[in-house]
Amino acid sequence: MLIKLKKIGDEKKGYLSFFESNKDIPFTIKRVYFIYNNSKKLKRGFHAHKKLKQTMWCPYGEIEITLDNGKTKKTYKLKSPNELLYVEEKQWREISWIKKDSVLCVAASEYFDEKDYIRDYNQFIKYIKGKKNEN
Ligand code: TYD
Fold this sequence. Notes:
Elements: E1 2-4, E2 8-10, E3 14-16, E4 31-35, E5 43-49, E6 54-60, E7 63-68, E8 73-78, E9 83-87, E10 92-97, E11 103-108, E12 117-118, H1 121-134
Antiparallel strand pairs: 1-9, 2-3, 4-11, 5-10, 5-12, 6-9, 6-11, 7-8, 7-10
Bound molecules: thymidine-5'-diphosphate.
The site of thymidine-5'-diphosphate has 7 residues, from strand 4 and strand 5.
């Protein structure tokens, strides 16, 4: 889900945008990380998370993020600093740097935990199907 953040300011002064835990996004932020100094054609991601929720934004440049829930795929473009992509759990993500030196910032709902990652697509599909059978 793409969230458009409020912009405070004007062209002369510059703009300020913000978001708050459990108000603008549906979780409490425990961790923030960012990816920067990438070459133009770089692709990253290629994993899903079992529990982790995230919001992603691009304060500088242009980045494309494809989310795949095992059934449908949707591609989002982040090209304005006030666009925030909410990525819920169990979403396979592929992230492409469209412009060189674009910066990707991520706010996450949990501390880093490698065990929360699914790094193999077939395993991800199996995990999703297994979860469905549990309900
Ligand atoms: P990863 O999430 O795999 O990034 P990408 O999918 O974009 O390649 O993280 C890359 C490496 O950084 C991996 O070895 C785990 C480590 N890492 C941390 O130690 N802490 C963090 O908060 C994150 C996001 C990654």
